[in-house]
Design brief:
Protein Transport Mog1p, Chain A; 6-stranded antiparallel beta sheet; alpha+beta; 3-stranded antiparallel beta sheet
């Protein structure tokens, strides 16, 4: 009889300890709590499948998957709008952000005016690459976080423009508010 009581007490304590440990190491019930706060002129974009959230200007559009579009074009064609940000998420395959950036640049050889700089976003080391050839001038950011490679592309990117463009403002907003879930 005493053995049954000790066994019951032991099992009860074990269950309580497991419940306490699970609560301590678990993720918040609502991961949106860690996302940036929505403001009047900014909307929240949350992609729980790919593990990120961010703010973007309220007058931009996010109808296309992974795109934030400035002045969307509704006519048929291959351009989503006047300018856009595209977010791609894939496996890291064991590479760092710097290695991914180097791999994107290496096959091009000499003759391109490609620049690289480091950036820190939410504690994750990233690499900003300007000047990669493409349909449009673009800026790309490669970030590795939570075993995922986040590639953010901003196009068309004109860094020598006299006035900051809407795309540069979108870039700043995304970089300052990007949060990994």
């Amino acid at each position: 009889m005493i053995k049954k009581q000790w066994l019951t007490l032991f099992l009860l304590l074990t269950m309580l300890i497991q419940a306490a440990c699970t609560a301590a190491v678990g993720t918040p019930a609502n991961s949106a709590e860690a996302c940036p706060e929505v403001k009047d002129d900014l909307k929240l974009l949350m992609n729980t499948e790919d593990g990120y959230c961010l703010l973007y200007p309220a007058d931009y559009l996010t109808n296309l998957p992974h795109f934030i579009v400035i002045n969307p074009i509704t006519a048929p064609g291959d351009m989503p709008g006047e300018a856009w940000a595209f977010i791609q998420v894939e496996a890291t395959n064991g590479l760092t952000a710097a290695q991914v950036a180097d791999d994107a640049i290496a096959p091009l050889g000499a003759g391109f005016n490609i620049t690289k700089s480091d950036i820190l976003i939410e504690g994750a080391q990233g690499v900003v690459v300007d000047g990669l050839p493409g349909q449009d001038s673009n800026r790309m950011i490669f970030i590795v976080k939570n075993d995922k490679l986040y590639t953010l592309t901003f196009a068309p990117w004109y860094p020598n423009a006299n006035d900051p463009t809407s795309l540069e403002n979108l870039y700043t907003t995304i970089v300052q508010t990007l949060h990994f879930l």
